Amino acid sequence: MIYIILILISLIIFIYIRFEKQHKKLIEAKEKYESIVEDLGDKFFAYRMNADFKFVYFSKNMENVLGISPDQALGKSFDEILKWTGDSLEIGEKSLDAYEKGQQHDDLTTMSFIHPLTQEERFVRVTDHTVTDSSENLLWVEGILEDITESVNAQKALHEKELELEKLATTDVLTKCFNRYYIMNNIEEEINRTKRKEEPLALIMYDFDHFKQINDQFGHDVGDYVLKEATEVISHVIREIDKLGRYGGEEFLILLPFSTLTNALEVAERVREAIASHHFKNLDQVTVSLGVVEYQKDESFQNLLKRVDEKMYESKRSGRNKVSS
To answer: In this structure, what DSSP letter does residue 296 have?
Structure first.
């Protein structure tokens, strides 16, 4: 009996010593972790959440990044202290769900929230991991959060600038439709596509009737107004996939992918009617003459342009304000 008691006492002491060693290691690990993260830069802070995902520790820079003091955050979850934006709430919920299932989640994650002091959207990069006991029970979650707002905003500004430069490179300054360079390149690209897939393609060219008289009688500012106003009108009567570009002066091209001659003639007639019926300030009537052609098999880019130009001048010769094909 005494022998059994001694064995039990020895077992209890062994378990206690082992537990104390594990507990000491955890404490040492926590202290070492905290000493390291306290020296992170201004845009970083570290945190620890318990098994209920409530904060039990923040490093000193937390208030700089989140705009919330540690006293306001301790004992609360991320969702209770921050107003997430975008898909950040869903991202956070997936991470917590993974932790509850015993899965690690060491990937860098970008999230965003509304800063409580400035009311500006802030962006942070989060990486965290779980700490478990020997039985794989969750003890806490440790993580580091980095404020990347400046980087994200700089990337956004760069992207917007690139889009602006791209638009300038492809847009006619006066009318805001596509410029000659862009529309000509697109015609060549569509010809190549048509050759590969044997799909229809049509082209419209139009020119403003008596445009020189408008400039001479009313001035170039009125002429510019006519070109801009007409471009706006025409953009509403062509299809979304059609491309309108300024060929030069008062001549314009409309590229019509997947269109037969019959389809293109219907579009051209809508364009002609829309301009002829539109009220241009201080002018009696503005009209356009249009030429329409459909791409022919193995036709060259130059020949396609030549044919549509000829058809447009055919409309001019036959009385203007007409469509010829």
So the answer is: P
Q: What is the pTM of this model?
A: 0.60
| CB 129 within 8 Å of CB 104 | yes
CB burial string 42-67: b at 16+ within 10 A, e below: ebbbbbbbeeebbbebbbebbbebbb
Query: Residue 295 has what DSSP assignment?
Result: P
Residues near 117 by beta carbon (within 8 Å), at least 6 away in sequence: 67
Compute the distance between CA of residue 166 and CA of residue 31 in angstroms, rounded to an integer: 53
User: How is residue 231 written in tokens?
Assistant: 């471009």
Tens digits of pLDDT across the chain (325 residues): 555 554 555 555 545 555 555 556 655 555 555 555 555 667 888 888 888 889 888 777 778 888 888 788 889 988 888 889 888 888 888 877 777 776 665 566 888 888 888 889 999 888 887 877 777 788 888 888 888 888 888 988 888 888 877 777 889 999 999 999 999 999 999 999 998 888 999 999 999 999 999 999 999 999 999 999 999 999 999 999 999 999 999 999 999 999 999 999 999 999 999 999 999 998 989 999 999 999 998 899 999 999 999 999 999 999 999 999 9
Q: How far apart are CA 307 and CA 122, in angstroms?
A: 57
Distance separating alpha carbons of residues 86 and 112, to the nearest angstrom: 7
Which are the catalytic amino acids?
250
CA–CA separation, 26 and 43 (whole Å): 27
Q: Smallest Cα–Cα separation from 51: which of 110, 174, 121, 136?
A: 136
- In whole angstroms, give the CA distance from residue 173 to residue 168: 8
Per-residue tokens: 130: 């779980």
